[in-house]
Amino acid sequence: MSYVMGRDLEIRVLGPLMLTCGDSTATPTAPKPRSVLALLLLQANQTVPVSALIQELWGHEPPASALTTLQTYVLHLRKLFSSALSMPASEVAKSVLVTTPGGYLFRSISDDFDLARYERLSGEGRQALAAGQNGLAAERLTQAQSLWRGPALTDVRAGPLLQPQVKRLEESRLTTVEQGIEARLRLGRHQEVLSDLAGMMAEHRLHENLHAQFMVALHRSGRRQEALRVFQQLRTTMTEELGLEPSKRLHLLQQAILSDDPALEVAPRTDGLAQLLDQITVR
C-alpha cells in the first residue's frame, strides 16, 4: 500500500502529469496548482520552501495575496488526495502533503512513482555498464527508458524553478538512451539498435555520440555506405548551422569505416565506443 490509510497511488511525471488511485484521479486541472504539485513531486520527501513555490508561480514580483493564494492551492491539492485516497483531509495533511517549517513536503512512500523507479533503474544500469556487466546494464537501462511516456511534465507550465529541473530530466533521459545503446553494442546487438538510433537522429541532429553509435551499428550490420552517409549528413548540418566540422574522433571513425578497420568488427566487447574511438585515434 502506498499509504497506511489509503490505496495505491500511481504518480507519473515522465510525460504528462498524472496521479491516480484506481479509477480516481488526484491530478489538478488548473495550471498553477499543477505547477505547485509538479515542483513538490520533483523534490519528493524534501521540503520545498514557500518562497520557492511563490517564485515558481509569480516570478520575482508576486502579488500581495501570493501567500494566501498558495495556501488555497495546497488546500485544493489536499482535497484531491483525500478523495482519491479515501483518506480524511486531516490525515492527508499529516502523511501526504505536509506543512513543514518554512514550506511544504510531498511524502512519497510508494514504489509506483515513475521518477523514483527511473532513477533506481538508470542508476543500476550505469553501475553495471561501468563494471562491464553489459547484459544487466542493457536490461536495466531499457527498463528505465520504457518508463517515459513523452517529455517530462509536458502538460505543466514550467516557471523559473521547474524549467531547469525538467531540462535535467531530459538530459538524464538522453544519457540513459545513449548508455542503453552502448550496452547493446557491446553485446553485439548492433542490428537491434538501428531503429532506436534512426529515430534519435531527427531529434538530435547535432549530437556527435549518437551519430557515432549509428555509424558503428550500420557498419557492423554490413551497411557501410549508409554509415558513411550518416557522417556526411552530420558534417553538412554542422557546417551549415554552426560553421564547425565534426570532431577529430568522428573524422577518424569515418576513415576507419572507409578502410574497413578490423577494430570496428570486434563484438561483443567488454569496453565501449569511447575506448574503440581511442583505439582508432592512437593509431
Automatic annotation (TrEMBL):
<comment type="similarity">
    <text>Belongs to the AfsR/DnrI/RedD regulatory family.</text>
</comment>
<protein>
    <recommendedName>
        <fullName>OmpR/PhoB-type domain-containing protein</fullName>
    </recommendedName>
</protein>
<dbReference type="InterPro" id="IPR051677">
    <property type="entry name" value="AfsR-DnrI-RedD_regulator"/>
</dbReference>
<dbReference type="InterPro" id="IPR011990">
    <property type="entry name" value="TPR-like_helical_dom_sf"/>
</dbReference>
<feature type="domain" description="OmpR/PhoB-type">
    <location>
        <begin position="1"/>
        <end position="108"/>
    </location>
</feature>
<dbReference type="Pfam" id="PF03704">
    <property type="entry name" value="BTAD"/>
</dbReference>
<dbReference type="InterPro" id="IPR005158">
    <property type="entry name" value="BTAD"/>
</dbReference>
<dbReference type="GO" id="GO:0000160">
    <property type="term" value="P:phosphorelay signal transduction system"/>
</dbReference>
<dbReference type="GO" id="GO:0003677">
    <property type="term" value="F:DNA binding"/>
</dbReference>
<dbReference type="InterPro" id="IPR016032">
    <property type="entry name" value="Sig_transdc_resp-reg_C-effctor"/>
</dbReference>
<feature type="DNA-binding region" description="OmpR/PhoB-type">
    <location>
        <begin position="1"/>
        <end position="108"/>
    </location>
</feature>
<dbReference type="GO" id="GO:0006355">
    <property type="term" value="P:regulation of DNA-templated transcription"/>
</dbReference>
<dbReference type="InterPro" id="IPR001867">
    <property type="entry name" value="OmpR/PhoB-type_DNA-bd"/>
</dbReference>
<keyword id="KW-0804">Transcription</keyword>
<dbReference type="Pfam" id="PF00486">
    <property type="entry name" value="Trans_reg_C"/>
</dbReference>
<keyword id="KW-0238">DNA-binding</keyword>
<dbReference type="InterPro" id="IPR036388">
    <property type="entry name" value="WH-like_DNA-bd_sf"/>
</dbReference>
<keyword id="KW-0805">Transcription regulation</keyword>
